[in-house]
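Notebook, bench 3.
Goal today: get a predicted structure for Outer membrane protein beta-barrel domain-containing protein from Niabella ginsengisoli so we can plan the truncation constructs. The sequence was checked against the plasmid map this morning, with no discrepancies at the termini. Length recorded as 85 residues. Pasting the sequence as submitted so the record is complete.
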Amino acid sequence: MLVALLLGDKLKSDKIEFGLNLNPTFSTISGLDGDTKPGLGLGLYFNFKLNDNLYFHPEFSPKSVFGIKGLAPYATGNAHVDGIY
């Protein structure tokens, strides 16, 4: 949001479009007992117009939920790490 406010006029033109996307995510880890973990993914994208019929569309999703709900912790052998879980 801050990027768009600061550079909005430079990120939106006839040839370049910038945007943010917010989408649902559902994560799990195969081979482990636990429920699917829902969340929201936040990303950004650019559209670069190469010509009237062709766009280059890079998209980045730097924030995403990973893991599963209800996974029982296990001992690692390190008291400091075990205390966190």
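Residues 2-69 form one domain. The chain has one domain: 2-69.
Flagging this for group meeting.
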